[in-house]
Amino acid sequence: MGSLGRLSLSRSFWSGxxxxxxxxxxxxxxxxxxxxxxxxxxPRSSRxxxxxxxxxxxNDSFQNFHYIMERNFRxxxxxxxxxxxxxxxxxxxxxxxxxxxxxxxxxFPRRMGIDAWTAHRRLRNHRLGLFLLNGEExxxxxxxxxxxxxxxxxxxxxxxxxxxVAEDFAGFLHRQVRKNTRxxxxxxLYQDVFRFTLEASSYALYGERLGLLEDGSPSPENERFxxxxxxxxxxxxxxxxxxxxxxxWVNHKVWHDHLASWDTIFTHADKCIQNIYQEHCLGExxxxxxxxxxxxxxxxxxxxxxxxxxxxxxxxxxxxxxIPLIFTLFELARNPQVQTALREEIKSATAQPRELxxxxxxMPLLKGAIKETLRLYPVGITVQRYPMRDVVLxxxxxxxxxxxxxxxxxxxxxxxxxxxxxxYNPKRWLKKDDNAFKALAFGFGARxxxxxxxxxxxxxxxxxxxxxxFKIDTVSKADIKxxxxxxxxxxxPPLLTFRPID
Length: 502
What we know:
alpha+beta
């Protein structure tokens, strides 16, 4: 809080200075500060943009992008330039540089656009949602959505919905265990956790259950939606570096698979939206029934704006929550002492009936466990900003409007930032150390992930109910190899063993 306050107070002072006149930390006359170097002096990973892209395609290097960035930081230092196809960026990895970018983001922060997503919306005549918007239109939508999705008051309303689904998931696991005469369950849980996150996020967004945790396979419609989300993420990564118009000629199948997956996502979301809209038009008195119903009731956004933003939340709230849960379960399985400590904290926090928000606030170690998972396995491997004015990063002058990326995967595993970085230690987040701009999995500033509180609550309630009911072990305690498919995921999900707690 103190460091953020100091950053805010200094904003007007810093913004009035030209880039190369920014003051450096105090130094005595014997050691004058080094001269700020020009943009062109920043180390480069390589110079031929299209050759780089060709090599990425040829060597299938996209899935190792996080490892490549980590290697580049080791070889080139904490700042370097990278050019791949149409993608040109300055990459940094230290919290101090993230803080500098925060200072320069202005009232309309910009993140890296995804041209393929925007092209789909324009081809299908859909309005852009919060993820793709910029400027005044972004800010207007964001201010309304903040109240319903990320504010404490808005979060408290949908917590019971998430809690119900988390309880049901624990019941689902118990039913699977009872089918085994050994009274345990060893399973690759990825698809089941995926269904949990879709069920929970849909319930919070639309106020309706999909029935994904019932025995038996999901309906064909829900299966199509699940597959569409996965295909959309897989096809986004190669499309990031090539303009969509060119991609239609370079790789026809990837482009059309991408369009078809988004069409399926929009069809699924539109069906849910129509159900809620019809109930809303009846005008009957009702209790809280989800985020979308609240947006319709308050009528601060147009119907097209609500549909665009709810669809993006629907698509973004599934894999991006399911995968961190898989990583967390794995780390708890191979760190039983952490698992035991969390179970004790949960037992204490739930000893007396209280509001869910109070229960969650009384579990700092569980919050730390989620932060620790996202430090080691961030969903997105970078956070992007376009500074609104010139900025000095690592003593190089970076012009306004340059795409800057904070490499949060590399940051999370750097001994320059974290002590013993390979160790899974949730208690590191409970210490009084300066953790400013070290936990960036959800971004920072006004453009941090709008679904942050929804995702955090979903993960905490899931872990609360699973840990209350089961002890977790893993067949293999070896590190999981990860691949980058627009989001970071395990190359092969781990096998986990669940034993009921009597």
